[in-house]
Sequence to fold (321 residues):
Amino acid sequence: MTPTVPALRCTDARAFGRVAVLMGGTSAEREVSLDSGRNVLAALQARGVDAHAVDGIPALVEALVAKRFDRVFNILHGNKGGGEDGVLQGLCEALGVPVTGSGVLGSALGMDKIRTKQVWLSLGLPTPRYVRLAKGDDVHAAARSLGLPVIVKPSCEGSSVGVSRVFNEADLEAAVALAAAYPGELLMEQLVVGGEYTVGILGDIALPSIRIVPAGEYYDYHAKYQAEDTQYLCPGLEGEAEAGIRALALAAFRAAGCSGWGRVDVMRDAAGNNYLLEVNTAPGMTSHSLVPKAAGQVGIGFEELCWRVLETSLPKEGAGA
Fold:
């Protein structure tokens, strides 16, 4: 059941050249990105990589134009100043600078929860029923069409930013107002009652699933990044159930055009049905983050994980330099 981890593609840190660890930025997830970035920077430097911190895309542009870096380790989170919406990937592609993780399409699609769900549904992959909310839409009619309880969230944010769980119609307006404070469209989604899982993706393998058990009722921003009493059970399932959720996550990741590394979030109801929630193309690398926990289960420590993610910026075998 344990996935087979391939050998490292590169063993000489000099092969990476000078690396920009891109962190911070101006998205709603800036502080999480800075935390992730500091950890990644320290891990790469400990392995002998010539890595340096760069805060935000404008600073990176200046550095790349001046040819100060050979590749980019992207640990920006979010969109609109984050590095998960395809803008950074397009920039690097235009300048001919390799970058870790997904390309333009996978990054842009993965950042947009509505369009990711549209792709998944077109392929018959399971995801909670939803309604796309435009400005002025009747949110009460939308909630009735799905049936309470529902989740209201921005379509293009992460880290549980702007998310509300709504159990009573009277709370709908406040939930919509909170989500509308962020750029982009809104998404109203059927709330799946059950266990919350996540599956890390590294290269072509799905790492062991993690079942997330917060001390409170929900796995919100506090439980993700601040609380010390959230439980992470890894692997989250056993036998065929574990194999099934990992296979589903890998299929969902590929369907969204993603590559390199990432994380797929899944809800599992009491009947054992899995429902895809979203893809993260630049997951957190903080002390509370999930991909490092899953990697540790297959013997990949944090420093090695950062090295392997950096390897995703290397040309694929058989491809040109």
